[in-house]
Amino acid sequence: MKAIDRTLYLGYYFKKMNWGLLNKFLTHTSKLTGRGKMSLWMDAINCVYKYNISLLEYFQFRFFEKSARERAEWAGSGFMYEYQLKMNPRSKREVLEDKVHFFKFYGDLTGRAFATLEELKNKQKSIEVFKNKAQKVVIKEIAGGCGKGLEILDLNKISNQDLINRMESTGNHLAEDFVDQHDSLNKLSSSALNTIRVITQIDENGNAYVVDSRLRVSVNSIVDNLAAGNIVVGIDLDSGKVNTDGVYSDITKKPVSHHPVSGIKFIGYELPHWQEVIDLTTKAAEMMSEYNKSVGWDIGITNEKPVLIEGNHDWCKLVWQLPIEKGLKSKLEKYY
Predict the structure, then answer these.
(1) How far apart are the first and last CA of the chain?
(2) Domain co-membership, 20 together with 156
(3) Given this model, what pLDDT does residue 149 score?
């Protein structure tokens, strides 16, 4: 049965493959290791079956230089799909998959106003609900992910009807307040809201605890997603201080000790309002505990407090494991 499942996964990886990126990784790794492309390719396919990872993850996890014992420690796409399906059943993901439901469920914990296209058209809400220092509004898809299609508009340059027109033309049917991030994070990188990814788990007794945390940092991008070419760093849970260099998901780029634009050093950088971040995500997880047991929360930090941006039932294993260059599957296996 396992072989059948992983053959289906392999077919899915082929279907969704970014072939240009795969070839880039294959060429880079061949030059780096001196191994032929066919040898690497066959090893990658074997690892899909043996370690339940994707083809791209063979390169991103650097399996080409790891032992069998080290390879077995990594949580890949196949494992994470099965784990998250068990922790977060499809029938119970509505609050996390629908941003409007998320806003309504978590209310004040999101720390910002929102309006749907329908509400604006029906005059239930207007552009006047958006009040932030930057005088901006963010429009996005209600069910979208990874920052797909997100736009940031200047409130001083648009009317209520302009906002409606833009939302209709782009398919971004949700508008929400721009989050004015903490001054410290703005100095680190001002191109986007740099969010903290906090992974929580509900144990068998219904208790919520924080598994790990990472900081996603933008690099000349309006989003902070790793897939958009940005950086992720590790965070020490006790101190709230960054404890790794910055890494990319693109293996052709080397880790960086300082932000490439601001020049600020990563290791030792201290996140503001850290205990409040832990408290907020623990509370959010407890509120969701009846429905979803394993969630990756995206947290924005303002000068005043942390706020919930969104929760992910299918949180990213790359963001989690790449910064510390170590497989972390054992942290989840005890719940599986």
Answers:
(1) 18
(2) no
(3) 79
Question: Rounded to whole angstroms, how far apart are CA atoms 200 and 335?
Answer: 12
**Phi-psi bin for 324: left (phi > 0), alpha (psi -120 to 50), beta?**
alpha
Residues 233 and 315 in one domain: yes
Q: Are residues 132 and 35 in the same domain?
A: no
Burial 308-327 (b: 16+ CB within 10 A, else e): bbbbbbbbbbbbbbbbeeeb
Predicted confidence at residue 143, as pLDDT, reads: 84
**Does 146 score more than 70 pLDDT?**
no
Quote the tokens at residue 112: 């910002």
d(CA 209, CA 92): 20
Say what the pTM is. Answer: 0.95
- Check whether 103 has a pLDDT greater than 70: yes
Task: Examine the domain organization and report whether 288 and 328 are in the same domain.
Answer: yes
Mean pLDDT value across the chain: 96
User: What CA–CA distance (Å, rounded) separates 76 from 48?
Assistant: 9
Query: What average pLDDT does range 82-107 have in this prediction?
Result: 97
**Helix runs in the chain, H state only:** 2-16, 19-33, 37-51, 55-60, 68-71, 77-87, 94-97, 99-106, 117-121, 160-170, 183-188, 274-288, 317-321, 330-333
Instruction: Look up residue 48 and give its two tokens.
Output: 């899909």
Residue 311 within any structural domain of the chain: yes
Q: In what order do the strands lie in the sheet with 231-234?
A: 231-234, 208-217, 196-202, 294-301, 306-312
What is the count of structural domains for the chain? 3
Structure tokens at 188: 């680190």
Tens of pLDDT, residues 229-245: 999 999 999 999 999 99
Q: Does the pLDDT at position 148 exceed 90?
A: no
Question: Residue 175: helix, strand or coil by DSSP?
Answer: strand
225 φ/ψ sector (left φ>0, alpha ψ -120 to 50, else beta): beta
Q: Write b or e for each residue in 252-264: b if 16 or more Cβ atoms lie within 10 A of its Cβ, otherwise e.
A: eeeebeebeeeee
